[in-house]
Design the sequence.
């Protein structure tokens, strides 16, 4: 459906590696995919989105929707942004304050160049779009008298009213408060599946990305760090950056003991001498230095000492905090501090000696 | 009660309030009193009368002046909004080339006295000027193609005078507009023209209307163009009528005062509208997204036409007047631009400017008065603006007092201040002091505007943190507020300094042969036909002021203090 190939758009000084933008980004989305660009600010996710929208002109690359080429730097093709047939929701919603809700949503139909919409047709389509986003009955409100959540729904209705081929969402939830954000997360996903619209979503919030997406591209400094489905991103991070950015994993350094094929299990000797069993998603070479990712929630903490069991580390609790649904402990294991997430009904006093156990599959070699 | 007295803010408010009352109230009171009383030869009040107002209604001339004023202000508002507005949009929102020229025009105009611009235009479009000269040579006629001393000439010159300011003000409106709004329209399928017509313009409309009203108010009170262009053609507006009835012998101050009261009333009503409009404009400001620079509209091949317009503006508004002044300054006497004239080019005028005592004294006088009043204003408004911005004791009253003089057109304030200080037994009349006092009254609102908006942008918690840390009011003011307000204070100071040296209307009635300032001196010399020296002096002065204007411009741009005294 959406094909992006070798997309490059660099801002500022080209020789400067820290310059913003995106480099050589390629992906292909089947119809109906909810695709999320995830990363910290300045990673190039918004640039990618704006290139697809036509708001920025790429330095190089191809953008295609279905069999229509929107942009091709080789041939110099570039469809103007207003002819791309794309729906977009802006971070600020960009609801025009001088129009009613109805007029805001009707706008794409009124300015359409490829066909003329009749009065009745416009009314029908706008009412339908407002109904879809749950704002039936708000049509005649002035746009200035809407809450943040309502503005967001109007922006969404405006983006889908002309039945676009592609929907672009630029951090649409970041201006909402926490509870509304969670509600809209589910709502957006439900809507997207109901309409079956291919969607590109930009966010820096990993929870949003994991909850809503079919496919996630984690981006760092203009490049893709990992592109995969949410579970794979979470459980099999491809590198340190992804492991750290998603779910704040503990990273342990060590040496691979024996050669392992992709997906094999094997052993790693950590730099403090402990041996642990790990999974090697990308394979391993004997004697090579590796980094192992251990998620806080995959570490089981207990005062029960069973050092003979495999994958057990002994340590001392040095800090703890109660978070309601869970508790978080910092446990010192030799020279390193591991972050551990535990059920909140278990209490470990600071200074108590504990053991941490984890399954072999949860220790992932990330590079 | 004791607590209130112990609050240093109350003491500050009372002190500043007293100064403001002493400055602002007497002129207004004096105008009202003069307009309804008769006086004897010594200026003492002999009785109450409504004859001044009756005369205004009965005399046809008053109505004609009023009509002329409205026509003049409306025409020049439309012209300056069209030229400045189109230019601002091209420069701020499109990929037109040569944008730097537009800024050059704005900055240099900021430093040039209005009266100098007007004189250059008078010469350009005048009977012996190059335009009519060319026409005569081409057609063999003996008359003129364009009579500059007409309403059309007045509107044209006043319009050009205001277009650089319109450019700057609308420029910041366009620059700060939420680009998402336009991009959303483009993503919805709208073309550039559709977007402009259905989104950009309606969104800018409140700001546009507010600015139009602002220019209209300033043009109603404008004096330079009506005096230099209109009066020789026997076209009178309200300001020149006030001027005439003040300078005729014997002066008809009752008439001038009544006229002034009418103008003040008109301006007050317009200002009330203006306040409502600009509040309206603010309502359209919405949440902005991340700081993506708005992508300029791609004009395609049209960008060269846009570049042409920018060059045209540069040539017409800046280059032609400057070249004209240059020509005038190099000739021993005023004559039309021709090859024959080249032979008599001389630097005599420049020598005169540097050797004759008068000019250097004049320059020093002007700089002193402007700097002194700017300093006084910023000192007063720093305190008043802070109290008003923080809703301190009497804040609203202080704000209204400090901005009261907005209702005075410059010439009316001149009359009022003259009247006040003729009656005060202090030897101030006829010295530079009276001009300084008039400047302080006149430009106080600008200082207030700078400080007030800066205080509003200053997070209240910064001061509260200082208080919690143990600082008293005065310490907080000195250590926290003053340093953080410094950019606004400097910007305000520079703005007042520049505009005080630009405007003619206030000082024209207050200056005496011993206490001249620049704009008045240029005006007098033009009236006396000493075009060459005044042009030479004016050009040198313009260079000096352009340097200061550049500092102001760079400073406000960098500090984000985007106020130009509107």
Sequence:
């Amino acid at each position: 459906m959406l094909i992006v190939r070798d997309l490059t758009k660099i801002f500022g000084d080209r020789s400067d590696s820290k310059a913003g933008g995106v480099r050589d980004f390629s992906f292909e989305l089947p119809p109906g995919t909810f695709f999320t660009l995830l990363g910290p600010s300045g990673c190039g996710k918004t640039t990618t989105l704006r290139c697809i929208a036509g708001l920025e002109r790429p330095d190089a690359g191809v953008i295609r929707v279905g069999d229509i080429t929107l942009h091709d730097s080789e041939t110099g093709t570039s469809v103007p942004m207003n002819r791309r047939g794309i729906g977009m929701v802006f971070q600020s919603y960009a609801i025009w304050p001088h129009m009613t809700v109805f007029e805001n949503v009707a706008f794409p139909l009124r300015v359409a160049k490829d066909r003329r919409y009749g009065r009745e047709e416009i009314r029908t389509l706008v009412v339908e779009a407002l109904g879809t986003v749950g704002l039936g009955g708000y049509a005649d409100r002035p746009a200035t008298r809407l809450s943040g959540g309502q503005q967001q729904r109007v922006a969404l209705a405006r983006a889908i009213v002309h039945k676009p081929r592609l929907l672009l969402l630029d951090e649409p939830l970041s201006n909402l408060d926490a509870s509304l954000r969670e509600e809209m997360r589910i709502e957006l996903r439900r809507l997207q599946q109901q309409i079956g619209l291919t969607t590109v979503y930009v966010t820096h919030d990993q929870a949003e990305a994991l909850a809503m997406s079919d496919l996630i591209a984690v981006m760092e400094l203009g490049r893709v760090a990992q592109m995969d489905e949410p579970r794979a991103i979470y459980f099999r991070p491809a590198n340190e950056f992804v492991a750290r950015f998603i779910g704040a994993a503990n990273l342990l350094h060590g040496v691979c003991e024996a050669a392992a094929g992709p997906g094999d299990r094997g052993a790693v000797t950590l730099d403090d001498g402990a041996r642990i069993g790990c999974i090697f998603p990308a394979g391993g070479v004997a004697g090579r230095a590796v980094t192992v990712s251990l998620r806080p929630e995959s570490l089981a903490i207990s005062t029960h000492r069973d050092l003979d069991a495999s994958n057990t580390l002994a340590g001392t609790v040095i800090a703890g905090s109660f978070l309601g649904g869970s508790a978080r402990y910092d446990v010192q294991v030799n020279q390193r501090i591991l972050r551990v997430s535990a059920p909140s009904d278990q209490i470990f006093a600071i200074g108590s000696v504990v053991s941490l156990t984890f399954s072999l599959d949860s220790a992932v070699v990330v590079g | 009660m004791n607590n209130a007295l112990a609050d240093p803010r109350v003491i500050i408010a009372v002190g500043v309030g007293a100064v403001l009352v002493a400055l602002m109230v007497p002129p207004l009171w004096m105008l009202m009193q003069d307009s309804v009383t008769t006086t004897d030869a010594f200026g003492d009040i002999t009785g109450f009368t409504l004859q001044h107002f009756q005369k205004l209604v009965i005399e046809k001339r008053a109505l004609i002046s009023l009509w002329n004023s409205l026509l003049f202000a409306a025409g020049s508002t439309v012209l300056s909004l069209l030229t400045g507005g189109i230019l601002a949009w091209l420069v701020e929102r499109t990929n037109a080339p040569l944008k730097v020229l537009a800024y050059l025009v704005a900055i240099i105009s900021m430093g040039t006295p209005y009266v100098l611009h007007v004189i250059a235009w008078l010469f350009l479009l005048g009977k012996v000027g190059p335009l009519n000269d060319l026409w005569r040579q081409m057609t063999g006629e003996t008359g003129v193609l364009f009579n500059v001393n007409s309403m059309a000439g007045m509107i044209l010159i006043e319009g050009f005078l205001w277009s650089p300011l319109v450019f700057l003000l609308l420029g910041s409106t366009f620059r700060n507009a939420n680009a998402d709004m336009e991009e959303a329209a483009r993503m919805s399928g709208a073309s550039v023209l559709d977007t402009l017509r259905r989104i950009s313009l309606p969104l800018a409309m409140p700001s546009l209307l507010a600015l139009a009203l602002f220019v209209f108010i300033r043009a109603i009170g404008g004096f330079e163009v009506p005096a230099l262009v209109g009066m020789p053609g026997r076209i009178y507006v309200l300001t020149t009528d006030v001027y005439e009835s003040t300078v005729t012998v014997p002066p008809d101050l009752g008439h001038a005062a009544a006229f002034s009261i009418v103008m003040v009333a008109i301006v007050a009503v317009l200002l009330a509208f203006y306040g409502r409009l600009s509040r309206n404009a603010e309502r359209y400001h919405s949440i902005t997204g991340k700081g993506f620079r708005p992508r300029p509209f791609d004009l395609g091949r049209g960008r060269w036409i846009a570049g042409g317009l920018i060059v045209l503006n540069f040539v017409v508004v800046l280059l032609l007047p400057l070249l004209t002044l240059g020509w005038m300054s190099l000739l021993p006497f005023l004559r039309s631009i021709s090859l024959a004239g080249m032979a008599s080019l001389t630097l005599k005028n420049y020598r005169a400017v540097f050797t004759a005592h008068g000019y250097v004294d004049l320059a020093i006088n002007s700089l002193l008065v402007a700097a002194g009043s700017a300093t006084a204003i910023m000192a007063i408004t720093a305190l008043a603006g802070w109290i008003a911005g923080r809703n301190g004791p009497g804040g609203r009253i202080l704000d209204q007092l400090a901005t009261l003089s907005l209702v005075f057109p410059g010439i009316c304030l001149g009359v009022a201040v003259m009247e006040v200080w003729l009656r005060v037994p202090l030897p101030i009349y006829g010295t530079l002091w009276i001009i300084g006092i008039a400047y302080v009254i006149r430009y106080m609102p600008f200082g207030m505007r700078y400080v007030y908006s800066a205080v509003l942008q200053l997070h209240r918690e910064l001061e509260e943190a200082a208080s919690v840390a143990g600082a008293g009011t005065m310490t907080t003011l000195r250590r926290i507020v003053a340093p953080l307000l410094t950019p606004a204070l400097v910007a305000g100071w520079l703005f007042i300094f520049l505009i005080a040296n630009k405007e003619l209307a206030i000082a024209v009635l207050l200056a005496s042969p011993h206490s001249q300032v620049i704009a008045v001196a240029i005006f007098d010399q033009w009236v006396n036909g000493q075009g060459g020296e005044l042009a030479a002096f004016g050009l040198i002065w313009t260079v000096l002021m352009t340097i200061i204007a550049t500092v102001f411009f760079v400073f406000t741009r960098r500090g984000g203090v985007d106020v130009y005294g509107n």
